[in-house]
User: Which sequence fits this backbone?
């Protein structure tokens, strides 16, 4: 049974992911309608993710000491400010400043300080044995919210234009800030001593996981939802409204897969579940651009989404399990920053490839191949590093 804080964190997750989903479907269309080229758009999205990296690192490594609620409110304000600026100007310099300092999600996925701090707070208010299941429902709720946002963003842009969706993003940032003010002290943690960047004994594990997560995110950056939607438009002439429907069902399937992940993890372990559900989804990703028609490409995309998110709640729960309670926000923030850095590098190359029609399908192949490499390295390095609640073959928390 979730506490009041638990339900509140689910609500903030849904509010934020609805905004991210709505924006992701139209963001590239909106920026190109302002007169930005594909290369400029890719560069802007990269700078946006770089800015999110700095903001997230600063806020998450201080959240356990200064206050999780305070840092969440600051992040929500930055999200609202970025959305308002994007809706108010077509000046590239202003867009770069707003995207770098504020919080903008071009992918429909989590960015900024929210996810690691919320998960640290959730881990504080739920028993360890329930953590993976709660994270699975948390992922499902976010996926449904992203799906609803993608559907609404596509439909709203078809009627009112792209700018209205960007304004909605800003308004939901304000709503998010108000919701975070209701978080109680039960979600906080007492920190007696903290190492640099808020982590101490878990430094080696966190840094090694960060490197692997950065590789996975770099691969994913080649197929962020905004560019994937744009690929369907360029290849098959799909309208924003239809794209909204496609990614609505994609995110619904992704969210439902998270629930199955918690059952698999209970039987096979977190790391094995991460790896052996992720590998086939990467093969499907490579197959998407090889499909000769829209129905087939959509079918393969949906099949990929139906298993692609099983590693998300397991990965998040695994990280919270192998670090101390006083390190959770920082550990989540550092690994999240690593993922953001990886994702930030990819759009520059993606924009370059999309600017050349003959190469616009290459990002899918690059992404799938790199993700397979990530899976192999993760299994080799961490299969033996088990969380305390799992049956243990060895007691060391240091990966081989």
Assistant:
């Amino acid at each position: 049974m979730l506490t009041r804080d638990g339900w509140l964190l689910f609500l903030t997750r849904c509010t934020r992911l609805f905004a991210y989903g709505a924006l992701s479907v139209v963001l590239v269309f909106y920026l190109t309608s302002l007169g930005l080229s594909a290369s400029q758009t890719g560069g802007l999205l990269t700078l946006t993710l770089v800015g999110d990296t700095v903001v997230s690192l600063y806020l998450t490594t201080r959240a356990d000491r200064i206050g999780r609620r305070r840092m969440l409110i600051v992040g929500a304000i930055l999200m609202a400010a970025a959305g308002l600026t994007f809706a108010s100007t077509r000046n590239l310099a202003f867009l770069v400043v707003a995207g770098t300092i504020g919080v903008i999600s071009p992918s429909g996925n989590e960015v900024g300080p929210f996810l690691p701090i919320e998960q640290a707070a959730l881990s504080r208010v739920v028993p360890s044995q329930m953590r993976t299941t709660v994270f699975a429902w948390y992922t499902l709720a976010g996926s449904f919210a992203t799906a609803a946002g993608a559907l609404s963003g596509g439909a709203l842009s078809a009627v009112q234009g792209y700018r209205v969706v960007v304004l909605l993003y800003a308004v939901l940032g304000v709503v998010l800030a108000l919701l975070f003010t209701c978080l109680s002290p039960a979600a906080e943690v007492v920190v007696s001593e903290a190492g640099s960047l808020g982590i101490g004994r878990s430094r080696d594990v966190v840094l090694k996981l960060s490197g692997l997560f950065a590789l996975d995110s770099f691969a994913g950056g080649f197929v962020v939802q905004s560019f994937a939607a744009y690929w369907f438009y360029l290849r098959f002439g799909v309208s924003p409204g239809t794209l909204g429907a496609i990614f609505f069902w994609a995110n619904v399937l992704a969210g439902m897969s998270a629930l199955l992940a918690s059952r698999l993890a209970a039987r096979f372990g977190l790391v094995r579940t991460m790896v052996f559900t992720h590998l086939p989804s990467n093969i499907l990703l490579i197959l998407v651009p090889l499909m000769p028609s829209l129905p087939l490409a959509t079918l393969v995309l949906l099949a990929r989404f139906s298993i692609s998110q099983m590693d998300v709640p397991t990965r998040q729960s695994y990280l919270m399990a192998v670090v101390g309670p006083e390190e959770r926000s920082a550990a989540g923030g550092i690994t999240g920053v690593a993922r953001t850095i990886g994702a930030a590098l990819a759009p520059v190359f993606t924009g370059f490839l999309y600017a050349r029609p003959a190469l616009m399908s290459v990002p899918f192949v690059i992404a799938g191949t790199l993700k397979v490499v990530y899976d192999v390295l993760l299994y080799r390095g961490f299969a033996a590093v088990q969380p305390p609640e799992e049956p243990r073959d060895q007691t060391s928390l240091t990966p081989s």
Residues 394-400 have pLDDT under 50 and may be disordered. The chain has one domain: 4-185+197-382.
